[in-house]
Design brief:
It comes from Lentinula guzmanii. This is C-3 sterol dehydrogenase. InterPro entries: 3Beta_OHSteriod_DH/Estase (IPR002225), Lipid_A_modif_metabolic_enz (IPR050177), NAD(P)-bd_dom_sf (IPR036291). Belongs to the 3-beta-HSD family. By secondary structure, this protein is of the alpha/beta class. It folds into 2 domains: about 325 residues, NAD(P)-binding Rossmann-like Domain (Rossmann fold, 3-Layer(aba) Sandwich); about 70 residues, no CATH class. About 40% of the residues lie in helices and about 10% in strands. The strands form 5 sheets. A 7-stranded parallel beta sheet has the order 3-2-1-4-5-7-12, sandwiched between helices. Strands 6-15 form a two-stranded parallel sheet. Strand 4, helix 3 and strand 5 form a beta-alpha-beta unit. The longest helix is centred in the first third of the chain and has 21 residues. The chain is globular. About 0% of the residues have low confidence. It binds nicotinamide-adenine-dinucleotide.
Length: about 450
């Protein structure tokens, strides 16, 4: 925990993630203000402004007495406006860093995105060693990548400590993107279409878990590193020095089982592949479940055994220290962390779970029918046609190459570093999170918002 209580400014605090962060800070009695271009809530001091204007950010920092900035602001993904992404995410983030330095703010927590490492190819269990691609998927991810780089580079400059969190697929109450999109498909009667074979795993993160990770990062940002960064030594060692007691404690502590929805850790290997919680059981389901339950293969609290391929193995910790002599991968400052629910599921399982919940709200809306499965290549061909047609008539196509790619590849991330270094554990499972999101949606719907055809 921080030794003295911080004063927080949540930038983008009127948004989905920002609001949950504000609520969690308020719940634990912290002093928090919001900076945003729009005001949606009135329970905390609000500073109206644009992050690309350094002076506006600086004024808010000075007036609020901020010691810790949590920066969640960004235009939404999916806009066809690269210039806006650059102005807000890249220039805006740099303006925040400059204003923070100007006002001697000590801490900056940045909401990056798991998308910064996605280039359209499958990513399975990737960890923080994977460098962002030279050609990100789109202008949004490119701008997030550059913003993250600026944040990490600023660590240690003029006393500022920085950290970047990379959440994946955020959902929950207050979300306007995932739920609205899934509801539209439901409303349009298109839930029986499936692109790809649904054997690809995808990461989701419940919004309160994301907010929780931000608070942990803020609290631990000034925790001293468990070993001196190489830049503080007289000579940078050419061979790995022995790990310190503090480092060993971080990497050898047994972690509790991760998967909250099915109650045990899912390890997607051929012998113990996770059943997405909501798929029809395959013929060998019994065998798979038995593999999960076998205490000999997955005993809780088993000793941690590492190989040289493991991100937190000694050679890789050494390599990371060598690559970034100002930080170590086992400290918070200057580091990036993936944040997910730790329960990757087959891509179409999550939308289907949401649609099944909607069936209880709108009985009879959906007819029982089989799935129409389009292969990824057919999906890409259709998207190409739709994009050309959309370009001709000047309309955004409903099906795009990005959407097809997104639904057909594996995209899941290793969160062990966040669990060990931040002490992050997902608090709310995928299943409970979806239930909470749909309950919120039901309230919105019954109060008249989003009411359409039913
Ligand atoms: P959101 O759109 O709900 O919230 C963003 C907030 O930023 C909004 O309140 C908006 O008004 C504010 N904002 C935008 N431009 C601004 C500017 N120029 N100056 C000041 N404020 C500005 O988005 P969200 O879903 O809460 O996302 C929060 C962060 O999480 C973003 O940085 C996003 O890139 C990141 N992220 C989101 C997801 C997701 O699935 N939603 C996934 C990964 C990362």
């Amino acid at each position: 925990m921080a030794s003295t209580k911080d004063i927080y400014l949540v930038i983008g605090g009127s948004g989905f993630v920002g609001r949950h962060i504000v609520e969690q800070l308020l719940r634990r009695g912290d002093n928090v203000s919001v900076f945003d271009i729009v005001q949606r809530y009135h329970d905390v001091p609000f500073y109206s402004g644009d992050i690309s204007d350094q002076e506006q950010v600086s004024t808010a920092l000075r007036r609020s007495g901020t010691t810790c900035i949590i920066h969640t602001a960004s235009p939404p993904a999916g806009l066809n406006d690269p210039a806006l992404y650059w102005k807000v995410n890249v220039d805006g983030t740099k303006a925040i860093i400059a204003a923070a330095v100007q006002n001697k703010v000590r801490k900056l927590v940045f909401t990056s995105s798991a998308g910064v490492v996605f280039n359209g190819n499958s990513l399975s269990n990737v960890d923080e060693r994977l460098a962002p691609p030279e050609r990100p998927m789109d202008a949004y991810n490119e701008s997030k990548q550059k913003a993250e780089e600026a944040v990490i580079t600023a660590n240690g400059k003029d006393g500022l400590l920085t950290v970047a969190l990379r959440p994946a697929g955020i959902f929950g109450p207050g979300d306007r993107q995932v739920m609205a999109g899934l509801y539209k498909v439901y409303e349009d009667g298109k839930t029986h279409f499936q692109i790809g074979d649904n054997n690809n795993l995808f990461d989701w993160t419940y919004v309160e878990n994301v907010a929780h990770a931000h608070l942990l990062a803020a609290d631990k940002l000034d925790t001293p590193p468990p070993a001196p960064p190489f830049s503080t030594l007289e000579n940078i060692p050419l061979e790995a020095p022995p790990l310190t007691e503090a480092e060993l404690e971080i990497i050898t502590r047994p972690l509790p089982p991760l998967d909250l929805t099915v109650g045990r850790r899912c390890i997607p290997t051929s012998e113990a592949r996770p059943l997405g919680p909501f798929v029809a059981p395959p013929p060998n389901a019994e065998q798979l479940v038995a593999a999960f339950q076998d205490k000999r293969t997955h005993p809780e609290g088993r000793p941690v055994v590492r190989t040289r391929f493991d991100p937190l193995s000694e050679p890789n910790i050494f390599r990371a220290k060598f690559d970034n002599p100002d930080s170590t991968p086992l400290q918070v400052a200057g580091q990036v962390f993936y944040i997910t629910n730790g329960e990757p599921c087959y891509f179409w399982d999550m939308p289907r779970l949401v649609w099944n919940h909607l069936d209880t709200m709108f009985p009879g809306h959906r007819q029982k029918r089989g799935y129409t499965v389009l292969s990824a290549s057919l999906g890409l061909a259709l998207a190409f046609g739709a994009e050309c047609w959309g370009w001709l008539i000047g309309k955004e196509p409903a099906l795009t190459k990005f959407k097809v790619t997104y639904s057909c590849v594996d995209r899941w991330h290793n969160i062990e570093k966040a669990r060990r270094v931040l002490g992050y554990e997902p608090q709310v499972s995928l299943a409970d999170g979806v239930q909470r999101m749909v309950d919120w949606w039901r309230t919105e719907y019954t109060s008249g918002t989003h009411k359409t055809a039913h």
